[in-house]
């Protein structure tokens, strides 16, 4: 009897708990009985049965460390749940950790725009593991300027910038925090070593700095500003949001926010205007912010 046939004989709650174990092993690298007990509010004996059932179905997926009392992902790990990259990235972004997107999904009449670039979910899994366990990684990365090559990074966040997913990490080559496009990463090897103080997320000042943006309907391009106010839920005609300095340029480009001093960008695509452009001083990635020029 193959795995698919065995799964069909299980109840929905059983499948859900097994999917949780599978998800934790893939994206965190380990799972514990206590986590299963806490997540599903089940007894310890029930959690033990779930782990034993998972081992029966996937005997090569995990190994137990008696000292740490954790089940770790094995070298031969192969997830039994087919993790759809787009759904899984949304779940990770919203802290949903059941991994349950392949069994018993409900179909809703909601459509999203087509995604042109979808990251490899196993690349994402390795990176999430590294972040969760404070590890560095060695990657093969292909850039537009230098082509393919090996890099050592200390990742701390995976981000959807509105157009594509990227990794925020300390780059040991340039000794700076930078963004790396996920789809350009073709191999990830986790490096288990003590990190240096300057590689810590708290030292990524562009990430830690919050920038207040005051966005209003474009004063020259919009004939009926009330429509824009309704679109964005503006209060008193202003949309006030705080974003990370490292992310400000991406957001402003995504929404075509005119960042010129005097709202000089013409065209129907510029329906929004940043009325406090001085707040962007010192932020990264502003070359992509429409019309912005540092004074």
Walkthrough of the structure:
The termini are far apart. A five-stranded antiparallel β-sheet has the order 7-6-5-4-8. It has helices spanning 3-8, 12-27, 33-40, 44-57, 85-93, 121-132, 205-208, 225-232, 245-254, and strands spanning 30-31, 62-65, 70-73, 136-143, 147-160, 165-171, 176-181, 185-191, 210-217, 239-244, 257-258, 272-274. It is α+β, with helices and mostly antiparallel strands. It is built from nine helices and twelve strands. Helix content is 29%, strand content 24%. The protein folds into three domains: 3-93, Arc Repressor Mutant, subunit A (Orthogonal Bundle); 121-193, SH3 type barrels (Roll); 207-288, no CATH class. The protein is globular, with a radius of gyration of 23 Å. Residues 102-106 have low confidence and may be disordered.
Question: Secondary-structure map with pairings?
Answer:
Blueprint: H1 3-8, H2 12-27, E1 30-31, H3 33-40, H4 44-57, E2 62-65, E3 70-73, H5 85-93, H6 121-132, E4 136-143, E5 147-160, E6 165-171, E7 176-181, E8 185-191, H7 205-208, E9 210-217, H8 225-232, E10 239-244, H9 245-254, E11 257-258, E12 272-274
Parallel strand pairs: 11-12
Antiparallel strand pairs: 1-3, 2-3, 4-5, 4-8, 5-6, 6-7, 9-10, 9-12
Helix pairs in contact: 2-4, 3-4
